[in-house]
Amino acid sequence: MTSQPLNFPDPASPLDIVPATGRIGGEVRNVALSGDLDDATLDAIRTALARHKVLFFRDQHQLDDAGQEAFAARFGDPVSHPTVPVRQGTQHILDLDSTDGRAASSWHTDVTFVDAYPAASILRGVTIPEAGGDTQWANTAAAYDNLPAPLKTLADSLWAIHSNAYDYAAVKPESSAERIRYQREVFARIVHETEHPVVRIHPVTGERTLLLGHLVQRFVGLSQSDSLALFQILQNHILQPENVVRWRWRQGDVVIWDNRATQHRATADFGTQRRTVRRVTIAGDVPVSIDGRRSRTIRPEPEAELLEAAE
Fold first, then answer.
1. 139: helix, coil or strand?
2. Contact call for residues 256 and 120 (beta carbons, < 8 A)
């Protein structure tokens, strides 16, 4: 007799949820997202998100920018990106619009270069390519659970420096000069560095999750070469096919993911087709390690932030 998959629906949930894989992702049916959604449904969505890590809502055509922001404000406390300007006419929406094959096509957790990085992200499909442009998510709690015992012991003791000032040209050598300039002058216009535990305690589920992704620069106390080798070992465990779900977008789809227990990447395989998705992130907490220590900001120092705000 086979054991029950990790990602089975909660029989007590009032939501109609169809699991997408055995370990991650659930499609929620018969729910229309809005700023007027009742409290009971919102609570059920939050509970389901903690369980499934990623929730998919098909054909939410009733949402425009204002509707997406209204729903996000009911779901949690929306926060803007620390360095990238919001879409004009909105308070918190990050507009990810591409016609040249650009996408966030490397595995990451959103905005981990700050200490209290987002708890969740809400992404809406606006213009979807006829083919390509899928997004994938990986379950970092399942990845930790399935590490060999010696690697768990090692990961439990590791801390890593995350930053938005990474060598984009080296990571994406095919990128245009314009895209590299954007990376340096917009995304990294204020350099952030934060020290996070590699294993954090999820504040809702109590699970241990691996906190890695492409914003990691190095491990504390290790050389760059040792950091790179060890990073790849741990990252490869996160990206095992059993931990990953892939979503084929349709216009109007909305996806919500638990940013504390996942990594994700967009697939940059859509050529010159237009791909537009819009994201709102929800405020998160400062990670806590298994021994109770909290993440800490290295750059910018609080005094520097106050000085810039006054200028």
1. strand
2. yes
Upstream peptide bond of 173 is cis (omega within 30 degrees of 0): no
Catalytic entry in 162, 218, 264, 278: 264
Q: How many CA atoms within 13 Å lie on the side-chain side of 267? A: 16
pLDDT in tens, 93-147: 999 988 665 666 799 999 999 999 999 999 999 999 999 999 999 999 999 999 9
Catalytic site residue 108?
yes
For 214-300, strand residue ranges (E) read 216-219, 244-247, 254-258, 262-266, 275-282, 296-299
> pTM for the whole thing?
0.90
The answer to whether residue 51 is catalytic is: no
Amino acid at 111: V
Q: What is the CATH number of domain 16-310?
A: 3.60.130.10
State yes or no: is 110 an active-site residue: yes
